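User: Can you predict the 3D structure for this chain?
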Amino acid sequence: MDKMKGGNNRLLIIIGSVIIILLVAAIAILIISRYKNKDYTENSTTGQDTEIRSVIITKENADALMEDMTSQEPAKPGYYTVAMTTGWHFENSKAVSYDAYVKNDADNSHNVYFDLFLEDDPDNPIYMSPVISLGAELNQISLSRELPKGEYKCVMIYHLVDDNQETVDTLHVAQTVIIEN
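Assistant: Here is the predicted structure, written as structure tokens:
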């Protein structure tokens, strides 16, 4: 009977060890799969891991991204759905654009404003929008600086704001400005 009791104890220890190993493996798989689906980098200013933003909206992918966004559920708090044209044409740099359009989707959670910068001059905006409330759109856009004829790569920085117009988050979007004359 002592042999049988000793064998049962060993069997229980082996089964317990296998269960512990399986639990540790399951937890490791969950953690690895969570980080495998996202790209992370260390933020040099805080030393914390931050998610890399891997999608940039450009003229070439805007239609596909817009179709994808319109087929998704409404934006959750902290998220922002961009509805805009990606190439703004101006007859000259003093004219109102005939195709510039930005809408703050009614399903978003925050009012928004944006500043438009030349890609190589991030300190001097060429346009500063008013606050666009939920569901509102902006389409009478004219630049605040004169630019010679040409095509300009720009960056729009959206500011999602709370009720006190304090920025709660920002979003950077590529934009093209074309001055025709």
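The longest helix spans residues 2-36. Residues 53 and 116 are 20 Å apart (CA to CA).
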